[in-house]
Design goal:
Layout: E1 2-10, E2 13-22, H1 30-61, H2 71-88, E3 92-98, E4 101-103, H3 115-128, E5 134-137, E6 142-148, H4 155-167, E7 175-178, E8 181-187, H5 194-216
Antiparallel strand pairs: 1-2, 3-6, 3-8, 4-7, 5-6
């Protein structure tokens, strides 16, 4: 048997190897090796392009601080889920939470920009949600979750589960506890497209946040 192995190299990095064999002994000549190397170079370039495209997608769609999807990609996901749910006649829901806190008198005021707090919230959401759910950071202190095949009747259970998880998070000095505001919207009851659903969700989170602030004052 004659083996022929050529490396897959791109920009000085070995990505793998191209291996070809023939049952006859000493079958391959120098021309065969040159052809195999040319094929390997093409494969290495293709692999590198896929890697770069994936990295670009990750950078474009992921929030650097939280590691969650960002606001831009949230709108893409909602549009996709709307189309899927319309096609298969399914429900899906959006759940948004806005971070607030009940502070000690005279406590620190700039806790919302605390990077560590946001990271803890992101991890808490990941632990609580299903693998099919998409979690996004929507602005400085808002997070939103896309819940496929989830009707309105189940949103109360999901909200309470998240509220309990967030209550266990340690907040920065000066804050007594997290008191997140929640809002939801469901397809198709609250909108038949991405724009209508997001408008309904934002209106409700604004109302919920205002009520929460009044109650905490």
């Amino acid at each position: 048997m004659s083996p022929l192995c050529v490396p897959l190299v791109s920009f000085g990095e070995t990505l793998g190897a191209l291996i070809v064999s023939h049952p006859s002994a000493q079958f391959f000549n120098m021309e065969d090796r040159s052809i195999a190397q040319a094929a390997a170079d093409v494969c290495a370039t293709a692999i590198r392009n896929v890697q770069l495209a994936e990295e670009l997608r990750r950078i474009t769609n992921i929030d650097a601080l939280s590691g969650l999807y960002n606001q831009r990609y949230f709108h893409v996901l909602v549009a996709q889920e709307t189309a899927r749910s319309r096609r298969y006649r399914k429900h899906f829901s959006l759940l948004m939470l806005e971070l607030e806190a009940v502070r000690h008198p005279g406590g620190a005021q700039d806790f919302e920009g605390n990077d560590e707090l946001l990271k803890q919230v992101a991890q808490a959401l990941k632990r609580q949600m299903r693998s099919v759910d998409a979690i996004c950071r929507y602005g400085a202190d808002r997070f939103v979750i896309i819940l496929p095949e989830t009707a309105q009747q189940r949103l109360g259970i999901v909200t309470e589960k998240l509220r309990s998880a967030l209550a266990e998070i340690s907040v920065p000095a000066g804050a007594l506890r997290l008191a997140p505001a929640f809002a939801t919207a469901t397809y198709p009851e609250d909108g038949s497209n991405e724009l209508e659903l997001v408008r309904a969700l934002l209106a409700r989170i604004a109302e919920a946040g205002g009520n929460s602030s009044s109650a905490s004052a």
